Amino acid sequence: MTGSSTEGITIVLHPVSDLSAAKAVYEALLGVAPEADSSYYVGFEAAGQHIGLVPAGGPQAMSAPVAYWRVADIEAKLAEVTAAGATVKDPPREVGGGRRVASFTDLDGNVLGLVQEG
């Protein structure tokens, strides 16, 4: 196998139907207050992980949680997984602070994400 390795799962986004209620549950679970708290996204940092709550699945139309794997080169990794049979769902885009994200589906339709820190 050639190509670059990942640096592990660092972000998991969860679609939620009631942001306020979900925020209370995740705050109790993680034991920390959210670092990002808005009407369109609530994000927690806990134990080296970023846990995000996305109302109604957001613009990505998420219907299930999506794990984001940290990579050094998002374009290279996306090319590797598509060459292996994956399909691009959302091409790389900047989401703030130099962070870039992309997502793809595997051969069974599971959505996986990639994140490159700026």
Describe this structure in words.
With 118 residues, the chain is α+β, with helices and mostly antiparallel strands. It has two domains: 7-60, 2-Layer Sandwich (Signal recognition particle alu RNA binding heterodimer, srp9/1), CATH 3.30.720.120; 71-118, Roll (2,3-Dihydroxybiphenyl 1,2-Dioxygenase, domain 1), CATH 3.10.180.10. It has two helices and eight strands; from the N terminus they run βαββββαβββ. The protein has helices at 19-30, 74-83; strands spanning 9-16, 36-37, 42-46, 49-55, 66-70, 87-96, 99-105, 111-116. Strands 2-3-4-1-5-8-7-6 form an eight-stranded mixed beta sheet, with helices on one face. Strand 7 and strand 8 (111-116) form a beta hairpin. The radius of gyration is 15 Å and the shape is globular.
